[in-house]
């Protein structure tokens, strides 16, 4: 039986990277460099900004939960274009949202589209790569997030002087449309069977949590809570701590973006050489050092190290955990991917909410970073109990 012609590897990875760039950076993380400007414009207060971030993370959780429900490949192919359309519509409407409540509702829906697409796109590509014995390349899809962080930083900086309030969303809205359309056109061509043959001899199970996977879930919860504080509030922390003329007041997010740019390639390679579990342990330690730097080092040096260390690790946590999870339960790859992201988003939702409560009771944004440090220490500790990759499934190369 002759196999259908398949798209080349590069266009598939590029399409996935552009879709993640659209939903995860132009949709989600662009809010981080925008937040200080929205506060300065009088559109939001710092506490409202934190609460709106929580609504976005709640939407992300709902999107990931929908991805658990719609985990079959045929369902993914039907849902992805609708998720991208929802992203485009809500991003356009944000350009008109001058009321904090309206913006919160739109960020909720935008987060839902992000959660659904962020789970389904890499899962669809990973299943296609695994079918062609190229699963080791799966982490390269996340290069789009690194490139998107750099792009979002540049867009916010370039438009800061001539856009105001809700209009600051226009650059992201206009760029999202063509990128999402082209990316989906490429992925729509993938011919992935509903039940691809699996390597190894692991007995199929319908359980997401078993003795092999539960420790990975516990560890990943710490990762979600640990990274989200600097990734949401680092530019705001720089503005509060540093003098107005400091480069880091406007440039901390640019440094995060630059550090993130090559991170998927680095951690993809380290996972292939050391094994995903050992690479994850190193990843947690480096990320923890970044959060501790913001807590323990004064002013600019702490902000600088936090930007570089957290920026260079958080995508590695995602891609290594997703790949390790699939190796533990290869018979239900998209479903375990969705469940891991759902748990990750619960932790992300909790951290800004707790920060909001802490600020409301007179706490400082700086001291709230101790929550992130404790969460990353929790994640690192649980990694020691995570099962090794099954012997019959070789590490990706």
From TrEMBL:
The protein's location, in the record's own words, is: Membrane
Q: Which Pfam families match?
A: MFS_4 (PF06779)
Q: Which UniProt keywords apply?
A: Membrane, Transmembrane, Transmembrane helix
TM region positions: 52-68, 141-162, 168-184, 214-234, 246-267, 279-296, 302-324, 336-355, 367-387
Give the membrane topology, semicolon-separated if more than one: Multi-pass membrane protein
Q: Does the keyword Amino-acid biosynthesis apply?
A: no
Stored InterPro entries = MFS_4, Sugar_transporter_CS
PANTHER family the UniProt entry points to: PTHR23537, SUGAR TRANSPORTER
Q: What is this protein called?
A: YbfB/YjiJ family MFS transporter
């Amino acid at each position: 039986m002759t196999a259908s012609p398949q798209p080349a590897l590069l266009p598939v990875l590029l399409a996935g990277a552009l879709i993640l760039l659209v939903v995860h950076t132009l949709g989600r993380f662009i809010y981080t460099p925008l937040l200080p400007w929205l506060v300065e414009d009088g559109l939001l207060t710092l506490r409202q900004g934190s609460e709106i971030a929580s609504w976005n993370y709640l939407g992300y959780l709902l999107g990931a939960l929908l991805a658990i429900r719609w985990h079959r490949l045929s369902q993914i192919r039907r849902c992805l274009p609708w998720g991208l359309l929802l992203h485009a519509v809500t991003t356009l409407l944000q350009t008109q949202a001058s009321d904090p409540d309206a913006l919160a509702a739109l960020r909720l829906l935008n987060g839902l589209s992000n959660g659904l697409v962020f789970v389904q796109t890499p899962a669809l590509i990973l299943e296609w790569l695994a079918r062609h014995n190229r699963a080791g390349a799966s982490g390269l899809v996340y290069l789009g997030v690194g490139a998107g962080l750099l792009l979002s930083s540049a867009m916010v900086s370039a438009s800061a002087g001539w856009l105001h309030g809700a209009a600051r969303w226009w650059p992201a809205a206009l760029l999202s449309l063509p990128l999402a359309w082209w990316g989906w056109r490429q992925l729509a061509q993938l011919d992935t069977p509903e039940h691809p043959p699996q390597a190894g001899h692991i007995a199929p199970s319908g359980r997401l949590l078993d003795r092999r996977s539960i420790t990975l879930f516990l560890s990943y919860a710490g990762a979600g809570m640990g990274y989200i504080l600097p990734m949401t509030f680092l530019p705001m922390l720089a503005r509060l701590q540093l003098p107005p003329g400091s480069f880091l007041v406007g440039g901390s997010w640019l440094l995060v973006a630059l550090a993130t740019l090559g991170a998927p390639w680095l951690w993809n390679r380290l996972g292939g050489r050391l094994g995903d579990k050992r690479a994850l342990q190193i990843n947690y330690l480096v990320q923890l050092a970044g959060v501790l730097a913001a807590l323990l080092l004064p002013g600019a040096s702490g902000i600088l190290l936090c930007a570089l260390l957290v920026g260079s690790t958080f995508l590695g946590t995602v891609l290594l955990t997703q790949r390790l999870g699939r190796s533990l339960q290869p018979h239900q790859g998209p479903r375990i991917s969705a469940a891991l992201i759902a748990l990750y988003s619960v932790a992300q939702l909790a951290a800004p909410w707790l920060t909001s409560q802490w600020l409301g009771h007179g706490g400082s944004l700086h001291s709230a970073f101790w929550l992130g440090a404790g969460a990353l220490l929790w994640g690192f500790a649980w990694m020691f109990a995570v099962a090794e990759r099954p012997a019959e499934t070789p590490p990706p190369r």
